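Thread: DUF465 domain-containing protein, structure

OP (GT): Posting the sequence first so everyone is looking at the same thing. Length is 65 residues per the record. Can we get the structure tokens written out before standup tomorrow? I want them in the notebook alongside the other entries.
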Amino acid sequence: MTEEEMRKRLEILRIEHRDLDAAIDALMTSGSVEQMQVARLKKRKLKLKDQITQIEDYLIPDIIA
């Protein structure tokens, strides 16, 4: 995967992460909270965050001062 493809993938993952956050908030504020659905969404959100971090770590290497 090229660096440009990784940057595009990163943006897609960030958008999906934000969308899941909004969906979780909407479920929590609505009257009927389905715990299983919220748990699945949170698990998916966590996986996305891991993927985002992995790509960011590759694109932005640590600089030892």
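GT: Both are above now. Quick notes for whoever picks this up: Residues 3-59 form one domain. Helices lie at 3-29, 35-59.
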